[in-house]
Amino acid sequence: MSVRPFIATALIFVLAALCIAPSISATENPSGLQATAGVGYVDMNWQPVSGADRYYIYRGTVDEVTLIGSVSANFTSYHDADVSEGANYLYYVTAWDNGTESAPSNSISITVPVGEEANIILPVLAIVLSVIAIQVCIVMLLYFSKQKTQLK
């Protein structure tokens, strides 16, 4: 058996791999994902990925994650204002390069704080009582001034 056909076949496979290899993108995944939450929003930022065209932002729970937005490669941050107070969310980011999606970044779990309820009853009650007290004072002043003029 001749070794030549085997070497020729191996050489064809190596050449084919070299021709195809440059078109396969090995997009690195974003790293350093950080998030801060405030009442009604979550802000995220991450480290840029060289050669990335876009970043896709995912949000969800441990069971289900959905795509919530994308930004061009010029941006490495995202503001999510479609959140519920008191809810816990899981976020991660992927990079896109020539139609190839990277592996996910590190994931972040964050809870959106609950805003304080605006207790309007106490200030309104204080204003109403103040107005009543002023009216009582005016009525008393008018009464006593009338009494004073009748005594003369």
Defining traits:
single chain; 152 residues; alpha+beta; Immunoglobulin-like; 2 domains; 5-stranded antiparallel sheet; 3-stranded antiparallel sheet; 8 strands; 30% strand; rod-shaped
Write the layout of secondary structure elements.
Elements: H1 4-20, E1 34-38, E2 41-45, E3 54-60, E4 65-72, E5 77-80, E6 88-97, E7 100-101, E8 108-111, H2 121-151
Antiparallel strand pairs: 1-2, 2-5, 3-4, 3-6, 6-7, 6-8
Mean pLDDT value: 82
Largest sheet: 5 strands, antiparallel
Query: How much strand?
Result: 25-35%
Instruction: Give the strand tally.
Output: 8
Note the overall shape. Answer: rod-shaped
Low-confidence stretches are: 14-26
Number of DSSP helical runs? 2
**Architecture (CATH level 2) name of the largest domain:** Sandwich
Name of the CATH first level of the largest domain: Mainly Beta
Report helical residue fraction.
25-40%
CATH third-tier fold name of the largest domain: Immunoglobulin-like
Q: Report the end-to-end length measured between terminal Cα atoms.
A: 143 Å
Name of the CATH superfamily of the largest domain: Immunoglobulins
SSE string, helix = H, strand = E? HEEEEEEEEH
Number of domains: 2
Supply the helix-strand structural class: alpha+beta
Query: Which value, in Å, is the CA radius of gyration?
Result: 35 Å
Can you walk through the features of this model?
- The chain has helices at 4-20, 121-151, and strands at 34-38, 41-45, 54-60, 65-72, 77-80, 88-97, 100-101, 108-111.
- It is α+β, with helices and mostly antiparallel strands.
- It folds into two domains: 25-111, Sandwich (Immunoglobulin-like); 119-152.
- The protein is rod-shaped and about 140 Å long.
- Mean pLDDT is 82; it is low at 14-26.
